[in-house]
């Protein structure tokens, strides 16, 4: 179907746009196949709003008739006439709320109908990334930052005990895995295929991280399909035995409670039995997922938009959302994994049920804690590509709707937003340790739900190959590394460290991510001004000390950090 068939009214003049904490603007509203465009052409300024229709989560409309009597009619008699107008409230996936006052009831209803239809198109190839052509990129450029093949070649410490397998090159073994995976060298492809049939969705254990200090590893998979009859798979057992020496001990971190794991057996799932996986010890760390997590996000956003300004009401709603409890669970579980690897010297296998949500959340956070490379700008993007995009997180399903949608929940779940929130908590506690800034996390949170780029399209690599995503769209990560505004995504206080960083998960250490959840309030403007001030302080410090570097030891960012420490404290209070 052509986009034009969905557009009942393309242009409306004399529309009033109302944004929070800004004066109303009058201008022209245009609807295109992918965007909503508002142009304010007042004499004193020329301002435009370009909103990707995919970013719209909910549309609320109301119309009213206005009765009046003109002074004279053609018949010379007073004649009652009816004028009409309408209001459309647009609630976006990035949590913005816009109001459009449109003259004419018919125009209002047509605009609302067009927006609803175009914002909910489900055909991947009709989405804007297939039409977007930025100047900085070419379709001939490499798509993505890394691949399993490159990761293996660049990690020499893997070569003795691990190999690169292309058993899934046609995605027949596991539709949600990439074509190549890293597995123990002693396990052949036939054994991998049998192990895959024993794991939900075919997600057999694969390597995702090898620690640079002691070569201990983190692996991930989905739950074993033991069922009520306690079925076993010899190949799956041998695969895990090949990961560690006979004298070593490994840990299985199950992101379900022990009760949930037992209940899963009744529906064909299960867990690793101590009798069959003897070198491995199982630890259950319950983490919410799916509908519970989505409803938590909805409650949090509702609390942040509460206009009452009542302190008791705000604190009650914040607590009832339980969002910070989910942040705590994710960080504490990731900390446990990191502690097993770094401090205790044990390898770890992480899984929940599907292995595509809480599993990826935990393995990613553990790598941020342990791996200095994952804390760099490029390394963090590579981590997201490896652990979320290539590893099969179903972005298309999980990010179909955000917190404002009135549609019935299906498979939506803000797992990726929760990851970014947890990384922000680490960034706030260790302001020197991460090379990227909060601005990058905010950009990623927005792009996951509505993007000009193809990185977060589809649910797995098989779908991206089938639909030609890599051939016909551009990579967000490549753009972020090359864009002219790259500097704003860099942390000016960054100072590399080879040490692990251990975030505190004490209740008083975890805070609401105001940069995201209060992004479209007066608070956000204050934060933006403060960030500019930080950059100014850092640049002045660099200029002042630049001439001294030839005769003295180069200054570190810790000197600058002292100058901005009070400002950062003020930001936290705000």
Major sheet characteristics: 7 strands, antiparallel
- How many DSSP-defined strands? 14
Portion of residues in beta strands equals 15-25%
The shape, in one word, is globular
Could you give the distance between the termini? 49 Å
Spatial strand arrangement across the major sheet: 4-3-2-1-7-6-5
Whole-number radius of gyration? 27 Å
DSSP helix fraction? 25-40%
Mean pLDDT: 88
Structural class: alpha+beta
Count of separate DSSP helical elements? 19
Low-confidence stretches: 67-76, 78-82
Describe the 3D structure.
This protein is of the alpha+beta class. Helix content is 37%, strand content 16%. It has a 7-stranded antiparallel sheet with strand order 4-3-2-1-7-6-5, covered by helices on one side. A hairpin with a 6-residue loop joins strand 1 and strand 2. The longest helix has 25 residues, at 522-546. The chain is globular, with a radius of gyration of 27 Å.
Jot down its keywords.
single chain, 574 residues, alpha+beta, 7-stranded antiparallel beta sheet, 5-stranded mixed beta sheet, 19 helices, globular
């Amino acid at each position: 179907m052509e986009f034009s068939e969905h557009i009942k009214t393309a242009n409306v003049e004399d529309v009033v746009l109302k944004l929070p904490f800004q004066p109303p603007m009058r201008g022209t509203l245009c609807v295109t196949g992918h965007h909503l465009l508002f142009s304010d052409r007042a004499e004193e300024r020329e301002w435009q709003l370009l909103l990707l229709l995919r970013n719209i989560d909910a549309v609320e409309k109301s119309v009213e008739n206005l009765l009046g009597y003109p002074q004279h009619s053609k018949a010379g008699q007073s004649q009652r006439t009816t004028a009409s107008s309408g209001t459309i409230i647009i609630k976006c996936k990035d949590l913005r709320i816009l109001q459009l006052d449109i003259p004419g009831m018919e125009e209002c209803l047509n605009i609302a109908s067009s927006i609803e239809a175009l914002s909910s198109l489900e055909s991947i190839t009709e989405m804007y990334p297939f039409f977007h052509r930025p100047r900085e990129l070419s379709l001939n450029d490499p798509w993505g930052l890394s691949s399993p093949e490159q990761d293996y070649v660049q990690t020499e410490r893997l070569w003795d005990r691990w190999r690169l397998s292309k058993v899934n090159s046609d995605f027949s073994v596991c539709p949600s895995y990439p074509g190549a995976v890293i597995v123990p060298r002693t396990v052949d492809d036939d054994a991998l295929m049998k192990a895959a049939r024993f794991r939900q969705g075919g997600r057999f254990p694969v390597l995702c991280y090898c620690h640079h200090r002691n070569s201990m590893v983190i692996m991930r998979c989905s739950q074993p399909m033991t069922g009520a009859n306690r079925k076993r798979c010899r190949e799956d057992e041998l695969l895990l035995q090949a990961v560690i020496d006979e004298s070593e001990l490994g840990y299985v971190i199950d992101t379900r409670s022990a009760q949930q794991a037992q209940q899963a057996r009744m529906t064909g799932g299960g867990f690793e039995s101590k009798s069959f996986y003897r070198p491995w010890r199982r630890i259950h760390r319950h983490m919410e997922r799916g509908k519970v997590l989505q409803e938590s996000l909805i409650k949090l956003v509702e609390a942040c938009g509460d206009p009452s300004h009542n302190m008791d009401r705000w604190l009650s709603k914040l607590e009832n959302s339980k969002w910070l409890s989910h942040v705590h669970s994710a960080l504490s579980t990731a900390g446990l994994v990191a502690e097993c690897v770094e401090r205790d010297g044990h390898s770890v296998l992480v899984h929940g049920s599907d292995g595509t949500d809480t599993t990826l959340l935990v393995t990613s956070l553990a790598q941020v804690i342990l791996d200095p490379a994952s804390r760099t700008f490029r390394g963090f993007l590579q981590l997201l590509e490896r652990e979320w995009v290539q590893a099969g997180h179903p972005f298309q399903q999980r990010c179909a709707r955000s917190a404002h949608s009135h549609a019935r929940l299906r498979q939506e779940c803000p797992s990726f937003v929760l990851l970014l929130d947890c990384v922000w908590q680490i960034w706030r506690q260790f302001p020197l340790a991460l090379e990227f800034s909060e601005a990058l996390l905010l950009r990623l949170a927005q792009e996951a739900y509505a993007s000009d780029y193809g990185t977060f399209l589809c649910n797995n690599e098989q779908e991206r190959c089938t639909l030609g995503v890599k051939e016909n769209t551009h990579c967000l990560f490549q753009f972020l590394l090359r864009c002219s505004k790259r500097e704003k995504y860099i942390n000016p206080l960054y100072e590399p460290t080879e040490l692990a960083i251990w975030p505190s998960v004490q209740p008083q250490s975890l805070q609401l991510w105001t940069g995201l959840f209060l992004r479209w309030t007066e608070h956000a403007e204050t934060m933006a001004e403060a960030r500019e001030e930080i950059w100014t302080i850092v640049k002045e410090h660099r200029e002042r000390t630049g001439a001294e570097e030839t005769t003295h030891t180069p200054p570190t960012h810790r000197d600058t950090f002292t100058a901005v420490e009070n400002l950062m404290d003020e930001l936290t209070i705000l």
